[in-house]
């Protein structure tokens, strides 16, 4: 049978962000795939070295357009550790609340993208409509829908007013009802299952070989979650389950993410109920003592790593960001081998790529 | 002279081309609007399909180097001409332009011509997406066409005539074919979704996979004609289903008959929209499996029942 | 992961009795390993201690040398630190032991010009194909300034 080469990207309807795949296809089967990233490489790591620690918070916020808050959380947490700064508990609560809201928003966005890619427009519309509930909460809290500018070194810049809390609870109630509907669709809709089950399988062993993180790893039975294993912020004061699945396919990833949304909503409620009184930030000096810190957070897509080395000045000597998408990208070659061309978008959506994050 | 004038009027205005054009745009609008309401959106204003059509007519018409210019210009016209001709034999609320014994077969043949044109368009327009889309369109054709044909053969055998008008008229006594051959109706309905390449069988033009499929490289007037031919095909398909399975206008020509026919058409359209909303797109191999393992045997069972019991 | 046991094992395998751990903030341990021993150290880590998760490789040009930090994770952080000369830096690739390292090494290679011996891919990861000039994260040397 004759082979043809289908280009997917750098611009393609199946991609939200630029990356390039060259798929060699025999009939409808993929024989080979070649991946190229770097189309949105902005040299941010270099930029970090030229800005002060305070200015860098804003750069960190702009590494990713979806999970902006977790980037500043990881960055601020690292700098605070270098400074030996005690962050007020109320600030940590607000920070964690935003992290979890962001996770819900990111997972719902992802659910919509997956649905769109398997031609399930209705779920796509519903998912993005209900994502607005979370975005509204975040907008009310911080003034921004996706870029919140909440974190600062030493604390947070926004407060949650007490009479605002019931309104957030009410919105979460609404989202909870919608999530029941989504879970019903994921578990029982037959065409949804036909398109996602057995697609893009990764075994536990593959996940470990490629150092994959986040929901993709958890859907293959690797129970790693920084929130539980190495708690940061106030995660050690919250009760939550780490969701895992054994199948390792796109369906399992969907299930893991959907259940994580439910868990996250529970965590948001706990955070709102336990919110302690107190100051919102402690004062941070401009200069940071020399040292090295490795700051890890659980971003919506998995382990996010900021390595910050300070040479004692007001600018970092080196900032290294490892976003969760990069290791996931390495698995795509394995996942795409021998699959049907129609499953390519499903697989690409299934791992939840964030190319701007990976390229930096 | 009067005969000629009235014949021209019948063909060009009602129930011919003019009427079909209006119906096509109206049905398309209703479909989009209903779908949008189900999905929590507002949907376009009523003139949107017409505006889109005019806009496309005015747009620049380009084809990539290597595409077969003449074939690409001809194929949308062939497609549109085939569905318009098919429409002439299908009664609309009792009115029919021309009818003869065996016109059902002509209609079915004419309705499958656009699928071939669609496949050729993909093959000849020099793009990998359209080639993949074209081959999918052909595979899909083989999956839905046989059950669709067999489902429509049932009523014809039952009535003992291969004329759409007669099959439609034979139900005026009371019993709709739907009640006698429910499996046949469901199969014809599923086949129609496949024919119209509507969700969940929009496999040849799955946009997240292969752009717009065979039509990826088309633009301007050619694309306008493609869209129009697909929209007219929707209307013709719905008319056909209503006539064959749902008792048409209930016999004779009357205002109530026309209204009844319209209502039935809208119900079928609604069913099409709802089906499109409810499911995820299948993969081509899943559709082929479904077509040959489920739909075709069911169609065979339905036919056997008709022959053994009804005949 | 028991840091004491790991240190003992590393001292034994690398026959470097002076090997010691440094403790960094946020529950992180850092062990300095000579560049030529890195691969054997990782072998011990992966083979004997089942620490398979390599978070990333950080590389930095300090102006005097190139520092490589291999960040492992097993419910807490473990960093192996090694340094290379600025002229013609090269080190054994980990791609065979940990396939996940391929992208990280590719990035270090193109950003700092470190050669990874035995690395399966030669292409650049983030930089454009027609990139010219020195590796972008290298500090300017005396002549360039």
Structure commentary:
The complex is a heterotrimer of chains A (about 350), B (about 300) and C (about 140). Chain A is an alpha+beta fold and about 350 residues long. Chain A has a single domain (about 55-360), classed as Cytochrome-c3 Hydrogenase, chain B, CATH 1.10.645.10. In chain A, about 50% of the residues lie in helices and about 15% in strands. Chain B has about 300 residues and is mainly α. Chain B is globular, with a radius of gyration of 19 Å. Chain B is built from 13 helices and no strands. Chain B has helices at about 1-10, 15-40, 50-60, 70-90, 105-125, 130-160, 165-170, 175-180, 180-195, 205-210, 220-245, 255-280, 285-310. The relative contact order of chain B is 0.16. Chain B has one domain (about 1-310). By secondary structure, chain C is α/β, with parallel strands linked by helices. Chain C has a single domain, classed as NADH:ubiquinone oxidoreductase Nqo5 subunit (Beta Polymerase, domain 2). Chain C has helices at about 5-15, 40-45, 100-110; strands at about 20-25, 30, 55-60, 65-75, 75-85, 90, 115. The longest helix of chain C has 12 residues, at about 100-110. Chain C starts with a helix and ends in a 28-residue tail after the last strand. Chains A and C meet through helix 3, strand 6, strand 7, strand 8 and helix 12 of A and strand 3, strand 4 and helix 3 of C.
């Amino acid at each position: 049978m004759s082979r043809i080469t289908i280009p997917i990207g750098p611009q393609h309807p199946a991609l939200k962000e630029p990356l390039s795949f060259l798929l060699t296809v025999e009939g409808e089967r993929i024989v080979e795939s070649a991946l190229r990233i770097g189309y949105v490489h902005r040299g941010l790591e270099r930029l970090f070295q030229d800005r002060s620690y305070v200015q860098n918070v804003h750069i960190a916020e702009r590494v990713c357009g979806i999970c902006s808050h977790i980037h500043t959380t990881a960055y601020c947490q690292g700098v605070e550790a270098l400074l030996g700064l005690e962050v007020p508990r109320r600030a940590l609560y607000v920070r964690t609340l935003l992290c979890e809201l962001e996770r819900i928003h990111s997972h719902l966005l992802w659910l919509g993208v997956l649905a769109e890619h398997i031609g399930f427009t209705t779920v796509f519309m519903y998912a993005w409509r209900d994502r607005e509930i979370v975005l509204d909460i975040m907008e009310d809290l911080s003034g921004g829908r996706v870029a919140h500018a909440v974190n600062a070194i030493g604390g947070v810049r926004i407060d949650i007013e007490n009479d605002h809390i019931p309104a957030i609870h009410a919105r979460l109630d609404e989202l909870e009802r919608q999530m029941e509907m989504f879970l019903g669709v994921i578990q029982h809709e037959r065409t949804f299952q036909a398109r996602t089950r057995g697609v893009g399988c990764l075994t536990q062993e593959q996940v470990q070989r490629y150092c994959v993180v986040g929901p993709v790893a958890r859907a293959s039975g690797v129970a790693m979650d920084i929130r539980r294993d190495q708690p940061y912020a106030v995660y050690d004061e919250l009760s939550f389950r780490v969701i895992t699945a054994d199948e390792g396919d796109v369906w399992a990833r969907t299930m893991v993410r959907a259940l994580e949304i439910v868990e996250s909503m529970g965590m948001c409620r706990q955070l709102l109920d336990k919110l302690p009184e107190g100051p919102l930030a402690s004062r941070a000096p401009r200069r940071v003592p020399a040292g090295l810190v490795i700051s890890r957070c659980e971003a919506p897509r998995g382990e996010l790593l900021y390595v910050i080395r300070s040479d004692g000045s007001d600018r970092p000597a080196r900032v290294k960001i490892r976003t969760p998408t990069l290791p996931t990208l390495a698995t795509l070659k394995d996942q795409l081998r021998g699959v049907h061309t129609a499953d390519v978008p499903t697989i690409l959506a299934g791992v939840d790529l964030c190319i701007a994050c990976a390229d930096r | 002279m009067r005969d000629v004038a009235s014949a021209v009027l019948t063909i060009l205005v009602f129930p011919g081309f003019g009427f079909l054009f209006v119906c096509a745009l109206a049905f398309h609008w209703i479909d989009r609007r209903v779908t949008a309401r189900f999905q929590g959106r507002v949907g376009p204003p009523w003139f949107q399909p017409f505006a889109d059509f005019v806009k496309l007519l005015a747009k620049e018409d380009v084809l990539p180097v290597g595409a077969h210019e003449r074939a690409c210009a001809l194929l949308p016209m062939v497609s549109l001409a085939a569905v318009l001709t098919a429409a002439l034999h299908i009664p609309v609320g009792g009115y029919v332009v021309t009818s003869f014994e065996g016109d059902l077969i002509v209609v079915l043949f004419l309705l499958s011509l656009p699928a071939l044109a669609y496949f050729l368009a993909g093959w000849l327009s020099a793009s990998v997406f359209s080639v993949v889309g074209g081959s999918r369109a052909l595979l899909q054709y083989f999956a839905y066409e046989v059950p669709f044909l067999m489902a429509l053969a049932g009523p014809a055998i039952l009535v003992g005539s291969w004329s759409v008008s007669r099959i439609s008229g034979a139900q005026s006594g009371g019993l709709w074919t739907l009640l006698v051959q429910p499996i046949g109706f469901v199969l014809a309905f599923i086949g129609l979704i496949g024919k119209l390449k509507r969700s969940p069988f929009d496999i040849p033009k799955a946009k997240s996979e292969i752009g717009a499929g065979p039509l990826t490289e088309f633009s301007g007037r050619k694309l306008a004609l493609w869209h129009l031919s697909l929209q007219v095909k929707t209307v013709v398909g719905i008319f056909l289903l209503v006539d064959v399975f749902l008792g048409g206008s209930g016999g004779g020509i009357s205002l109530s008959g026309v209204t009844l026919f319209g209502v039935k058409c809208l119900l079928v359209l609604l069913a099409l929209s709802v089906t499109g909303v409810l499911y995820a797109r299948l993969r081509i191999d899943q559709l082929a499996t479904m077509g040959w393992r489920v739909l075709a045997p069911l169609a065979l069972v339905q036919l056997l029942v008709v022959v053994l019991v009804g005949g | 992961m028991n840091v004491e046991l790991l240190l003992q094992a590393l001292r034994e395998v690398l026959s470097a009795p002076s090997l010691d751990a440094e403790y960094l903030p946020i529950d992180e341990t850092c062990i300095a390993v000579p560049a030529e021993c890195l691969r054997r150290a990782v072998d011990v880590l992966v083979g004997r201690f089942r620490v398979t998760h390599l978070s990333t490789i950080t590389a930095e040009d300090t102006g005097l040398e190139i520092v490589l930090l291999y960040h492992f994770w097993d419910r807490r952080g473990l960093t192996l630190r090694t340094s290379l000369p600025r002229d013609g830096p090269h080190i054994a690739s980990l791609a065979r032991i940990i396939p996940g390292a391929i992208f990280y090494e590719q990035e270090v290679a193109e950003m700092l010009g470190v050669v990874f011996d035995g690395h399966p891919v030669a292409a650049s990861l983030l930089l454009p194909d027609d990139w010219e000039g020195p590796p972008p994260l290298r500090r300017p040397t005396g002549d360039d300034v």
